[in-house]
Amino acid sequence: MDAQRLLARNSFTELNARARARALLDPGSFRELIDPFERLSSPWLPRQGIVTQADDGLVVARGLLDGAPAVVLAIEGAFQGGSMGEVSAAKIAGSLELAAEDNARGIPTRAAIVFETGGVRLQEANLGLAGIAEIQAAMVDLRRYQPVVGIVAGPVGCYGGMSIAAGLCSYLLVTREARLGLNGPAVIEQEAGVGEFDSRDRATIWGLTGGEQRYRSGLADRYVEDDAADLRQALLDCMREGRPGRCRSERTEAFLASLAKIDGTRPATPADVATAYGKELRA
């Protein structure tokens, strides 16, 4: 990106969840559902001495995308690391289920999810896990009708059970700042040791799980500059393409074949991943 464009851009990663949802929807169409004034927050966090947030860190926005009905679900990474608890997960799952019901009635409601999450909220572990499972089931149901587009921009990234949800998206958009992985670097280091993964080695972290590498590996469909207008345009392009012939989660054979090429007796390098995964995985 040249200096003039860099100065003129509207960084998506620097926006909060509410501003991200507004930036993606058609101008003037943003309408928030279950907003903070509803005071629908976690009933479990106060019992552990944790201050709640009135929307439980999840923004549900209805509006239009390219003139068509849409729902944008944006996770607030600044609250509890974007973790999913009972309320936030239910807001996502319920919204996707209602979108599927709209489609069944002939209303072509689309969905986009902005992932900024470390996965399940440990303070609500079982409830959060059950909620993430409901999210995943709702995504698979909705994508029969309309594309479900995910966006991972940064700085938190997308980890844990919600990384599986990201893998279920019809299309996934990433930026250079994005990170995507089942387990976070600190968790891998804690469980397997620093010899397996050094959580302080930023070059390796982004080299293995960063947005550019995930795009090169076929685990993401668009690699987009950190600009709100560019991400919105990429989102619209995906919606216009419609449902892909086979979603990524329906192409397990190709991914398993690529995984089989990796030597599991030593830590993988970015070059190993780039070699094992090919561009054909995006086909």
TrEMBL record:
Pfam families: Carboxyl_trans
Highest taxon in the source lineage: Bacteria
Assigned keywords, A-Z: Transferase
Gene Ontology biological process: carbohydrate metabolic process; fatty acid biosynthetic process; malonyl-CoA biosynthetic process
GO terms for MF: acetyl-CoA carboxylase activity; carboxy-lyase activity; transferase activity
Domain CoA carboxyltransferase N-terminal: 1-247
Protein name in the entry: Malonate decarboxylase beta subunit
Organism: Dyella marensis
